[in-house]
Design a protein that fits this description.
The complex is a heterodimer.
Chain A (H helix, E strand, L loop, with lengths): L2 H10 L5 H40 L4 E4 L4 H8 L4 E6 L10 E6 L5 H12 L6 E3 L1 H6 L13 H29 L2 H9 L4 H41 L15 H28 L2 H6 L13 H7 L1 H12 L5 H31 L10 E5 L10 H10 L2 E17 L5 H5 L3 H4 L4 E2 L3 E11 L1 H11 L8 E4 L2 E2 L11 E2 L8 E5 L9 E10 L14 E6 H11 L4 E2 L3 E7 L7 H22 L6 E5 H39 L1 H4 L1 H9 L4 H38 L3 H7 L2 H27 L3 H10 L1
Helix pairs in contact in A: 1-8, 2-6, 2-8, 2-9, 6-9, 6-20, 8-9, 11-12, 12-23, 13-20, 13-23, 13-25, 14-19, 20-25, 22-26, 23-25
Chain B lengths: L1 E12 L6 E12 L3 E6 L5 H8 L7 E6 L2 E2 L5 H11 E4 L11 H11 L6 H11 L14 H14 L4 E5 L7 H17 L4 E5 L2 H4 L4 E6 L2 E7 L3
Parallel strand pairs in B: 3-8, 3-9, 6-7, 7-8
Antiparallel strand pairs in B: 1-2, 1-4, 4-5, 9-10
Helix pairs in contact in B: 3-5, 4-5, 5-6
The chains are: A alpha+beta, B alpha/beta.
Chain lengths: 754, 227
């Protein structure tokens, strides 16, 4: 900007309007706060990724493996760009030396290492680079032109954020600048050029925004810090994750201030350019007035609220452009929020069916003992005893296997025949002349567990036979979410034949006594194939079978240990879960002591998993909620910015209404209708879409719609709606107050002055 | 029959050294059916007087009686209802609502009162003003003369006690200006409408039955036609 422009700006500077200055300063503060938060958040995410790479791979940049003589090491260290060459004792394997290299300028690392290998005579296979770390600093192998998404992603998000902020805050600048339109017209009439007017307006706006930008940037850093700490708390239980430590670099502050200043200047430039283009006469006459290009009606509002309704509707149509940002952002925010909270509730119900609630009386601790057969697991009794002492009501060790069962045609149950036969339910079976070969899932329980199962079924506990889970999913009359089961086979046969493979007459088959048929599955965290005939057997029987046909039966690789805690009947599940957590943790330790030393084990804790899952869901909702709230904030800010401009745009309009006899109450009624429309429109648009989206989701998840709608998150949606209405009402109360307290005569006189 | 009586009206703007006396002791009486023109230089106080008579502004002192009702003590709501029912205001810049059609602009005072429209009278007024074909247009789609006719139609529709016109021809060309004055005269004669018109166009003022001259907030002359 030239000196003449600066001088001119000082001359042109007019008395500041306090309210609109506050509006500009708030807009600049919000913009810089938001951008600063984004910058500090992304910077820390980058730092976190660098730390993760360093923790996993180390902080070395290049590495030489193999024996390196002292002379060669000195030669390496003498390279100008080499900062350090360190012998890494920890990484050295089988007495082979490993030298970690660090460079002053890692950007030339690939060229330097080529030169080094040539000078020392190192084979290229001895040199490795920490590609992951180097790529975090955007250092690429020569010839690598694959796109890296981090910087473009950051730049895109910053641009979207900046663009959205410009859309919102340029209105605030327009309000302030339009307040001076008359003076600008006079200055224009006495010879100020459009460029001088434009520059002076932008300079003034920029000067007003310096402090808010610095303040907003600092607050943004604080919010960024808070967000990261919150992430630490929410993801505390995530395995393999390290805590984020907040860091900040002065260059990030410079970038933030630059981005904020650019956003503010563009926001000021938009109205300044428009004003500078006005002819002196237009400017002296004053601000533009709202007009409709075409005749419009607001029949619904007219019918509901009378002429005030029609006036409100038409005023909103005439101001459509000014309110576009709020309409879009409020609609998207509300849609996003309503769908998000509903989706999480849906997911919650679904999880209850499939996981936590379904298994709440099934297991508290599950340990997977890897790559072992159940007959080879030692210390089962000791483990069960120790668990009992810690308060476990039941502990079962089991393994699953898959064999084939032969079912003669006449053995198929009447119920299955009634719905069209087994062929109608599944095509995964082999049809033979006299029957079927179907998949037989074998569940091998430790003997104590099997006897307990027998007791649960009310049969005499024995270890010389199997219990058949006699049920098959009736997929004709029910869906997977609410499955209905019917008996698979007739229950008047006291033995079953299992095959290792599918060939009848194979040597590898065995007839086993059936102790009972039941529709009650053993208390395990297991799901069985829909059309498999499940055979539950004790370990001692399995040992016998295994010795005879075990080679041809497919046994799952892992053994499972399922422990369920003893719960008092009268206490609530939540309280019990919290109280039981220390005991469960102790059982985990015992399992680690007894089994962990001999086997490769992995232990899950249902209560801890639920707590982690709840926390994660809460975290997702919080992040989603913050995003939706930011969107809503943009919309609300636009409404505020619009109502702040009431005095400019609508003063004359309202004076006219009053002059033809509208009462102040009528004017208030009109504003209330406008407020209802602005806040209600996004809701009216969104609710049917939300219902449609949710109906599709419910259909896809096969949940009972009534179950979802009875638990739908009405309260948060209602609170969100009320918040939108509340903020729009406040905006209108402020804007409307100004108009209502305005001097009617003054407004009419100004018009007459024209 | 006396329809308007002003008793010692004073209107002061500002305070202390910045005090400006816009009206200073105005006494005025208007009979029903009179066509009065108020003339005066710019800043003489004639627009202030019109605003006070229309209930748009309140006097600092004094009493304004319209059809035996004191409008100087009305609150904002009472004044708005008074403007709606008892006064028709016509401005230099028409004061039409840009987002409503001409029909709804004209019907506005009735719509605010949720009163049923007398279609016969409505058509009589718009036909006599020559805007019956423009009723579904927006104000910005009409010429200045047509907009002013619509403003007059709106002011007449409630059959008000007073029709107050502030420089109604000030923004119009000569032909349209003459037509507007003729229309005002017509309504004065045919409907016995009381009209108070502010102008600084002497030719327009001469069309009135009575001419009141204001200077520095005082009435300095009050002449009837032929006097």
């Amino acid at each position: 900007m030239g000196k003449s422009a600066t001088i001119c700006s000082d001359r042109l500077r007019v008395r500041k309007n306090r309210v609109s200055s506050v509006s500009i300063m708030s807009a600049a503060l919000i913009a810089s706060l938001f951008l600063s938060m984004l910058c500090s958040f992304f910077y820390n995410m980058w730092v976190y990724d660098v730390e993760a790479v360093v923790l996993e791979e180390g902080d070395w940049q290049a590495r030489i493996a193999g024996t390196v003589s002292e002379e060669e090491l000195n030669l390496i260290r003498s390279f100008g760009n080499v900062e350090r060459a360190v012998v890494n004792e920890e990484a050295a394997e089988q007495k082979t030396a490993v030298i970690d290299l660090y460079f002053h300028n890692p950007r030339t690392i690939y060229q330097d290492m080529t030169l080094m290998s040539e000078k020392i005579g190192l084979e290229s296979e001895r040199i490795t680079f920490n590609y992951q770390l180097l790529s975090m600093y955007f250092i690429r192998i020569p010839g690598d032109d694959k796109p890296r998404m981090i910087l473009p992603l950051f730049a895109t998000i910053m641009m979207i954020a900046g663009f959205s902020l410009i859309l919102v805050i340029h209105n605030s600048f327009a309000v302030t600048m339009n307040a001076k339109i008359h003076q600008l017209g006079i200055l224009s009439s006495v010879g100020a050029t459009p460029r001088q007017i434009r520059i002076s307006l932008i300079q003034e706006a920029a000067a007003m925004c310096v402090l808010p930008i610095i303040g907003g940037s600092l607050v943004g850093i604080g919010i960024g810090y808070g967000l990261l700490m919150m992430m630490n708390v929410l993801a505390a239980q995530t395995i393999g994750r390290h805590d984020v430590t907040f860091q900040y670099h002065p260059l990030i502050f410079v970038l933030t201030v630059f981005a904020s200043m650019l956003t503010v200047l563009i926001s000021a430039w938009i109205p300044a350019r428009k004003l500078a283009k006005m002819t002196p006469l237009e400017a002296i006459r004053g601000a533009e007035e709202m007009q409709l290009r075409k005749r419009k009606h607001s029949p619904i509002l007219y019918r509901l609220f009378g002429i005030e309704g029609e006036l409100a509707g038409n005023a909103l149509k005439a101001q459509k452009k000014a309110l576009r940002t709020s309409t879009i952002s409020l609609t998207l925010a509300f849609l996003g929020f309503a769908v998000m909270v509903s989706f999480f509730e849906l997911s919650n119900i679904s999880t209850e069916y499939t996981y936590f609630a379904r298994y709440k009386d099934v297991w508290d601790v599950m340990t997977t003992v890897k790559d072992v057969r159940i007959e080879d697991v030692e210390s089962i009794a000791a483990l069960q005893e120790a668990a009992r002492e810690e308060g476990a009501s039941s502990s079962v060790i089991y393994q699953k296997a898959t064999a084939v069962a032969q079912i003669p045609t006449e053995k198929i149950s009447e119920e299955v025949r009634g719905i069209g036969g087994i062929e109608r339910l599944t095509d995964g079976l082999t049809i033979q002349e006299k029957g079927y070969l179907v998949q037989a899932s074998i569940v091998i329980l430790d003997d104590e567990g099997f006897l307990e199962y027998c007791e649960q079924l009310g049969i005499i506990p024995r270890l010389d036979g199997v219990v058949i889970l006699n049920r098959i999913w009736d997929s004709v009359n029910s869906n997977f979410r609410y499955p209905e089961y019917i008996p698979y086979v007739k229950e008047d046969y006291d033995s079953t034949v299992l095959y290792g493979g599918e060939q009848q007459g194979d040597e590898s088959n065995i007839a086993i006594t059936v102790l009972a048929y039941t529709d009650k599955e053993p208390v395990l965290r297991e799901e069985y194939d829909d059309y498999a005939l499940v055979h539950v057997m004790p370990l001692s029987l399995w040992k016998d079978i295994s010795a005879r046909i075990g080679q041809s039966i497919s046994v799952e690789p892992d053994v499972n240990v399922r422990i369920l805690m003893d719960r008092e009947d009268n206490a609530s599940m939540i309280n019990q879960d919290t109280e039981l957590l220390p005991q469960i943790n102790r059982i985990e330790e015992i399992i680690a002591q007894i089994l962990g030393q001999k086997y490769d084990i992995e232990t899950e804790n249902r209560i801890q998993e639920k707590l982690t899952n709840d926390r994660m869901l809460w975290g997702y909702q919080l992040i989603g909620g913050v995003f939706c709230s930011l969107l809503a904030l943009i919309g609300i800010a636009n409404v505020f910015s619009y109502t702040m401009g009431f005095m400019r745009v609508r003063r004359r309009e309202c004076a006219r209404y009053l002059s033809v006899g509208m009462t102040p109450d009528g004017l208030k009624k009109m504003f209330r209708i406008e407020m209802l429309v602005i806040a209600g429109r996004p809701i009216m648009i969104t609710l049917p879409i939300t219902v449609a989206v949710l109906s599709l989701m419910i259909k896809a998840s096969y949940l009972n719609p009534a179950e979802f709608w009875s638990r739908a998150p009405y309260a948060p949606i209602a609170i969100y709606m009320a918040a939108i209405f509340g903020f729009v009402a406040i905006a209108y109360a402020i804007g409307g107050r100004k108009i209502l307290h305005d001097n009617l005569v003054e407004a009419l006189r100004n018009e007459a002055m024209m | 029959m006396e329809i308007l009586k002003c008793d010692n009206i004073r209107k002061v703007y500002g305070s202390g050294d910045n005090q400006v006396k816009a009206l200073d002791g105005i006494n005025l009486s208007v009979e029903k059916g009179e066509f009065v023109a108020i003339v005066g230089a710019s800043g003489s106080g004639k627009s202030t007087l019109l605003h006070i008579l229309g209930g748009v502004d309140a006097p600092t002192e004094g009493k304004v009686m319209v059809e035996d009702t004191d409008i100087s003590t009305m609150n904002r709501t009472q004044a708005a209802i008074f403007r709606r029912r008892k006064v028709g205001l016509v401005y230099q810049f028409y004061n039409l609502i840009p987002t409503l059609t001409i029909r709804k602009n004209i019907l506005m005072p009735l719509l605010l009162d949720k009163k049923k429209v007398n279609q016969e009278y409505f058509m009589q007024v718009v036909t006599s003003l020559g805007i019956e074909g423009k009723l579904d247009f927006l104000p910005n789609q009409l010429s200045g003369g047509q907009q002013q006719r619509a403003a007059i139609a709106r002011s007449l529709l409630y059959r008000p006690a007073l029709l107050l016109a502030d420089e109604p021809t000030g923004n119009l060309d000569r032909r349209n200006g003459e037509e507007i004055v003729d229309l005002l005269k017509l309504s004065n004669r045919n409907l016995n409408q009381t009209i108070i018109l502010i102008t600084h166009d002497e030719k327009v003022a001469l069309e009135a039955d009575r001419i009141i001259t204001i200077e520095d907030g005082h009435i300095i002359a009050d002449r009837r036609r032929g006097e």
